[in-house]
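Running this now, will post back.
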Amino acid sequence: MAQIKQRGVIELGKSLLMVVLGLALLFIPEVTLVSLARLVAIFLIVQGIFVALSAFRYRRADINKYAFGLEAGVSLIVGFIILYNPGTTISFFVVVLAIWAILGGLLMAFSFNQLRKAGVTSWFLFFNSLVAMTFGLVLIFEPLRGGFALASIIGAFVLLHGLLSLFSAFSR
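Update: finished.
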């Protein structure tokens, strides 16, 4: 019984965090995305420091210290780039998502054409390819605004999920 109550408290805490994150993503997406980017940056910097310390600690061991050094260096460099340029980082990830959507849309259009030649017509596949390519193009031309829009969509999902989890925690 004590475990069930403890699980309920954990579920309640998790649910409240999701509600707060969902609201933040919905109402202040730019601040939330920049904060998340900075958290990733801090993680990478701390990880880079620990990897560098590991390389230093094992400097006399018969292991490849250069791999440790390279990992530490990359983590530190990427961490500082993200820390001082969070907007650029957000735009970069949105552009990567846009390229993925465009390429996926092109591949769906190719698949539609191949299926049509084989006598199978799936107009849903064709329209899906158009939606994916349009989505990708919008993100390419407006990466920051696209990132904020995606944050709002994710925020709505996280908020709904958090509220449902909250109701679930109280319904026991």
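The chain is about 90% helix and 0% strand. More later if anyone needs it.
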